[in-house]
Amino acid sequence: AGKSTTLNTRAGLISPDAGKIRINGSVVLDAGAGTEIPVEHRKIGYVFQRSAVFPHMTVAENIAFGLHARHRDPAFISGQVSRWLDRMNIRELAEVRAARLSGGQKQRVALARALATEPSLLMLDEPFSGLDTESRRSVKDVVRQCVADLKIPCIFVTHRKEDAKVTGDRICHIERGRIVREGEASGFFG
Q: Of 143, 160, 167, 168, whose CA is between 20 and 30 Å from 151?
């Protein structure tokens, strides 16, 4: 339908042949003018469908990854890692290699890594797929609370109506690359 492609173009992982992309009012891509803000300067937190954690790194190293890539001060990195270990309730996993984590734990780490960079936009691509019922509920609650507390926009891709209903404020239904319906979540599935 084009949902993941939409996220990937916003993130800068795919460059469209035509059009403009604005994030929070700022143009990050204008194909006609040849303008394209690099991925690392877009201030986007992105959580992929397949909990893209680095299996050879510890949980703490995973959370710190984006901050190191942005050359943040070591004291700031340490503070952010500590904050997000606590916020995601995964402090006891700080020194555990990500390869040893459950699906729900990996999604919490991926979310912590995305939010530790203090993004202007959070994008989630099917973040609950593949999780058991308890992990799905737990991660969903964490996402909802973090987005509300941080007051940042979030684009959340899902195929599940129930996830859209309880997580979203506005819903956009895409079929075959086209928006077929858009509106407030409260009356969307009425």
A: 160
